[in-house]
Amino acid sequence: MQIPYILSAIVLLPIVAGAVMLFLPPKNRDLIYRFALGAAFVTFLLTLVVYLGFDTAGPRFQFVEKYDWLPALGISFHVGVDGISAPLVLLTGVVIFTGVIISQRIEDRVREFFAFLFILASGVFGVFVALDLFALFFFYEIAVFPMYLLIALWGWKQTREYAAMKLTLYLFVGSVIALVGALAMYFSSGLGTFDMIALESANFSPAFQNLWFPFVFFGFAVLGGIFPFHNWSPVGHVAAPTAVSMFHAGVLMKLGAFAALRVGIMLMPIGAQTHMPWIILLTLVNVVYGAFIAMTQTDFKYMIGYSSVSHMGLVAMGFATLDYNGLVGASVQMVSHGVMTALFFAVVGMIYDQAHTRQIPELGGLMKIMPFAGVGFIIGGLVSMGMPGFSGFIAEFPIFMGLWAADYPWIAIISVVSIAVTAAYILRAVGRVFFGELPAELEGHMHDVKPSEKLAIAILCFIMIAIGVYPNVIMPMVQHGVDAVLALLGGA
Amino acid sequence: MFASITPEMLLAILPEISLLVVMAVVFTADLILHGKRSSLPAWLAVGGLGLTLLLTGLFAQPGAQPQLVWGGMLRHDWLAFIFKIIFLTAALLVTLLTVGWQKVWLKGEYYVLLLVSTMGMTLMGASADLLMLFLAIETTSIPLYVLAGFVVRDDKSTEAGFKYLLFGAVTTGVMLYGFSLLYGFAGSTSLYAIAAGIASAAIPAPVLIGTLLLVLVGFGFKVSMAPLHFWAPDVYEGAPTPITAFLSTASKAAGFVVLLRVMLAAFPAILVEWQTIIAAGAALTMTVGNLIALSQRNIKRLLAYSSVAHAGYSLLAVAAASELGVVSLVYYLLVYTVTQIAAFGVVIVVWHTTGSDEIADYAGLHRRSPMLALALLLSFLSLAGIPPLGGFIAKILAFAAAVEAGLVWLVVVAVLNSIVGLYYYLVVLKVAYLDEPKSDKPVPATRPQAATLLVSVLLMLILGVVLAPWYNWAASGAAGLF
């Protein structure tokens, strides 16, 4: 299926909506909220159309559009989705829609909040669909900046300034370092184009790839939360307001991983093969260390933040195997973790809004009060633990298969520890927060979540269960995308 | 003598003729007003600059081939044309920003000086002869010395004027000495004959490098290249804010165009050496500018140091000494000019209400005037190089030019610097958006100020998104130099 202009529409609609919002009357909260909800819903529908319209027997890139942007330097607005990015586009659509739904409680400067959130969304869409290196950077930096304002202005008062600044600077360092690598690629290819499909066949010399691969890979992987550059992420998650945490952990971190794959691994496969054996050790630290740190947290949001570090480590680990199953698993994990963590943050946000505490020991018995949110959280927890029947299993199992196939059995064995640890902290949190006794001081303060919030939870849970029960909703598509990556790696 | 003047030659200096006429009109109007305060000179200047811009754009376009006109004094080429447009646009926007500024805006001589200085800049952009160049630089600078010290009741302004005059005079003197050596070596004052003259006279490289350094003192002062940047913060802080905007954009761009022209035309014999010198200067300039900017509490000083840092990034493009380098420099200065004017525009508007340039007094600007805060946000983001604003593409082009020229180490320095830059821009934005306002009073802008802000913000966005026309325009300017 080919629908003209749909990717351009997906990329441009949020930023245009954001710009329009900035000029709506600031006092009229309802109008602004309805406008944002409408724009988010339309965006979500468009991404759904792309996902459903993707033909797994078709060409590698679909819905392709290409317009000259700066022909003198070979820059074009070239967009298209493959089997890896199409699910991520849908993920972004889902998260923006559910994120707007649960942002009803934002009181302060509503129009700016949604405007910046939508500008951020445009940047994210742009990166996922970009087939031009320049366009990719263009949207990457659009996606990074609004985070600063979103966290600094609407975040948790105690840490927001520090967290916002730390996050922005970390991500920018990464981005500009990757940029230098990208420019080096542009000039040494001699092709005079920023088109990534053309650059895939540039045949950079092994020496060049070995030198530049780490710059590009780590430049982006900072946003993917790779150890030892993961530090900004839990702090950022905690400080951010709920919808932004959802976006941040659910989508933005995938942006880093995805760009590291697209620009790092796919354009410099030899460099990837040289460096991955040691990079995989870093990802192991991510997976295991992240899980242990998560276990020691008593703050609900910090726990999820570190669990994200752990789960995103699995994504990078899957990439680092450079193996078919590893790559498939990592690609599915991006979607699965995105949905799961968005759900986690949504539920935590709902609890915090009423209880005004995120300390796990101070909560309890919430299952009776907000059963819907409780069930949602438990489903997310099962995904997080990699239970069969849920998307987490479909994602993590191939990653471990990939580790064995790529001859990293020890890495596989050690990272399985993380699954046990994950189970421990998730079950402990569920037990404390949702079961047991409701603390006396919360008596009478807590109410069930709103119907609209239930809708958001239901959408997110539906995706995780759908993938888990019927993996064919995503697997053929991802495999279609990974086949092409593998071809670039020389079938390795 | 007059028989040899062709229409082409007159069209080549159409902007200068027009500026001179406008100046005469403003001057006469001021005389007729006889010291009475009136807004007439301001509007005459605005209209005249607008008309000049229009005439220049329509009739003063050069041909495909660069031409030496007026006895080899001026070069009628695209580079000069582009910079004339930049200077005139900057002058127009600055004049509009002046409207309503203190009582200064009611004085006719302010506009006369501004117009003369602008004319000097347009001549600087086209100068092809050392003598012409020197005269043009002086025509630009002397009115600016006066303008910097224009508010005589204000000690800071007087100090700014004096400082600028003293340092300017010394550095110009050193530069003139360099010019005289160049003439001695080459036997010609024509920029485009000097290279050949030097080659045939077999001047040893060390002597030539020494001469280059002397010349560079003058140019470095103009563009505030470290270690010749020290005047900038004091002068920027003390000068009337519209003049600060003019100094940090048009005057700086004029410095860059002569720097570029002289380096490329007169010193091909020591290309590698001057590239290294400029590269070292670039690294030093951006680092010094950014590091000192970190500790500033006054927004004019912050913008002054940030403008030093941006001079460093622009020098990076010069150091590439390639066609892409020239293109990126032109693009950079285009973006930088509109961005900086927007930033100073906000400073001017805020000063009107609060009477302060302290960053702390920007607290809660967003709650007081959301649109003004938005203009501040966009201009600072453009300075930080964030898309979709012009600063992003300017940054990428400059980095690309340097990578292409093999100056990867310099790009790494620039990358680290851009992070420092981002930090202090964000700090100001944080104050404006996050901190609690000290008063709820709105911060209104006059209509001309609002229009200027709107135009410069739109230009920032257009420069950042619609890339090809601007790039090709800059490329046509670069083509004439190689």
Structure, described:
The complex is a heterodimer of chains A (492) and B (482). Chain A is mainly alpha-helical and 492 residues long. Chain A has one domain (6-488). Helix content of chain A is 73%, strand content 3%. Chain A has helices spanning 6-21, 29-53, 85-101, 110-129, 133-154, 160-189, 196-200, 206-221, 232-239, 242-265, 269-296, 300-321, 324-355, 366-369, 371-385, 391-405, 409-434, 451-469, 475-488, and strands spanning 62-70, 75-81. In chain A, strands 1-2 form a two-stranded antiparallel ribbon. In chain A, helix 11 (269-296) packs antiparallel against helix 12 (300-321), helix 13 crosses helix 19 and helix 15 packs parallel to helix 18 (451-469). The radius of gyration of chain A is 21 Å and the shape is globular. The model of chain A has no long low-confidence stretch (mean pLDDT 91). Chain B is mainly alpha-helical and 482 residues long. Chain B has a domain at 282-482. Chain B has helices spanning 7-12, 14-33, 40-59, 78-98, 108-126, 130-148, 155-186, 191-201, 205-223, 231-238, 241-266, 271-293, 299-320, 323-354, 365-368, 370-384, 390-404, 408-433, 447-465, 468-479, and strands at residues 67-69, 74-76. A two-stranded antiparallel ribbon of chain B has the order 1-2. In chain B, a hairpin with a 4-residue loop joins strand 1 and strand 2. In chain B, helix 12 runs antiparallel to helix 13 and helix 17 crosses helix 19. Classes of the chains: A mainly alpha (492), B mainly alpha (482). At the A-B interface, strand 1, helix 5 and helix 6 of A face helix 16, helix 17, helix 18 and helix 20 of B.
